[in-house]
Amino acid sequence: MTNAEPITSQDLKVRPPMEKGTLPRWIRQALGNSKVLVGGTLTLLILALAFIGPIFFTSDPNATAVTQQLRPPSGEHLLGTDNFGRDILARVMTGIQISVGVGFSVATISAVVGVTLGLLAAYYRRLDGVLMRICDGFMAFPDILLALAIVATLGPSIPNLIACMTLVFWPAIARLIRSAALSAKQQPYVTALRAIGARDSKIIWQHILPNTISTVIVQVTGYFAAAIVIETALSFLGAGVPAPTASIGNMIADGKENIYTAWWMTAVPALALVVLVLGVNLLGDGLRDSLDPKSGIRSGRPFSAITGLIWKKREPVPLR
Q1: If you ran DSSP here, which 8-state letter would residue 124 be given?
Q2: What is d(CA 62, CA 243) in angstroms, rounded to the nearest whole number?
Q3: If you ran DSSP here, which 8-state letter would residue 207 be given?
Q4: Residues whose CB is less than 8 angstroms from the CB of residue 270 and which lie 6 or more positions away in sequence, other chains included
C-alpha cells in the first residue's frame, strides 16, 4: 500500500468565502434579468416624474385659466392644458401619485390579510372550509364589477377605493398562499417541529411563511399593477377619485370629448399609465423568474440581458 499524497484545498475544490459587501444570490440573479432591469427602469422613471417632478414644476394642478384653455404643448406648458386651462403636466404628476398610493395601499393590505388567512387556513383544517368558501364567494364575481358595486354603494372617495379593491384582491392571495403553505406543511421539518413541541405560531410565522415569501412578492407586484388599472377605470366611469382632484382616469374621461382637437389631454395620461403598468408588470415577472428555482433565466451581465431582450439570438437554419 503506497502512501497517499496530502489532500489540498484545490483537490476538494473549496469555494472561497463570500467577500464582505457581495450582493446576495437572488439580488444578483434579479440584476441579471432583463425584465427586472427594464421594468425597474420604467417604474423608477415614472415615480421620479411623479414625486420629484413637483419640486421643479410647481404649477397648481387644479388652477384654472380661462385664457389658457386647450393650449398645445409649449414652453409655458410643457404638455399643454385641458379644457379648463389646467396644466396637464402638473395634473399627470398628481394623478400618478394618487394611483401609486392607491395601488401600494391595496397591494399591502391585501397581502397582509390574504397571507394571514391563507396560512391559518392551511394549518388549521377547521378554518380551511369556512375561509375558502368565503373566498369562493368573493371570487365568483368579476373584479371590476365587484369593485364598481362596492364603491357605488359606499360613495366615490380614495379610502372607499382602497377598501373595495382590498375586498376584491385578498381572496385570490389567500387561496394562493394556502396552496403554497399546504405544500410546505408536508415537509419533514414541520413534523420534526411538532414532535419537539414547537408552538403553532412559531411553525407558521418562522418556518412556513418564509417558504411562501417568493409567492407573496410576485403576487403583490401583480396586484399593485391591477389596482392601478382598476382605480383608473373606476375614475374614468365617475366612481373613483372625485373631481376636481387630478387622477389618470378623470383626465382621460375629460379628454375624450376633445380627442380630435386636443389629443394631448388623453394621450399624455394614457401614456403615463401604460408605462407605469408595463414597468410594474415586467418587474413582477422578472422577480418571479429570479425567485423561482425552476425558472429558465438566471444570472448574467445586465447590458447583455437588455440587448438579449431587444435582439433575440437566432439559431442557424440547417442546410438540407
Answers
A1: -
A2: 10
A3: I
A4: 248, 252
140 phi/psi in degrees, rounded to 5 = -75, -15
What does each C-alpha distance from 10 to 5, 6, 16, 205 come to in angstroms?
13, 11, 11, 41
Q: Whose CA is closest to 300, among 104, 118, 35?
A: 35
Pick the CATH number of 46-298 from 3.40.190.80, 1.10.3720.10, 3.10.20.90, 3.90.930.12: 1.10.3720.10
- The angle that helices 302-310 and 34-51 make with each other, rounded to 10 degrees, is 100
CA distance 30 to 298: 8
- Give how far Cα 93 sits from Cα of 39, 77, 98, 159, Å: 19, 14, 9, 20
For 171-227, what is each residue's pLDDT tens digit? 999 999 998 888 888 888 888 888 888 888 888 888 888 888 878 888 888 889 999
pLDDT tens digit string along 286-316?
Answer: 887 777 655 444 433 333 444 444 444 444 5
Taking CB atoms within 8 Å and a gap of at least 24, the contacts of 300-305 are 300/32, 301/32, 302/31, 302/32, 302/37, 305/32, 305/33, 305/34, 305/37
pTM over 0.90: no
- Residue 238: alpha-carbon gap to chain centroid: 25
By the 8 A CB rule, do 95 and 246 touch? yes
- Asked whether 230 and 143 are in contact (CB, 8 A), the reply is yes
Q: Which residues pair with 87 in a beta bridge?
A: 81
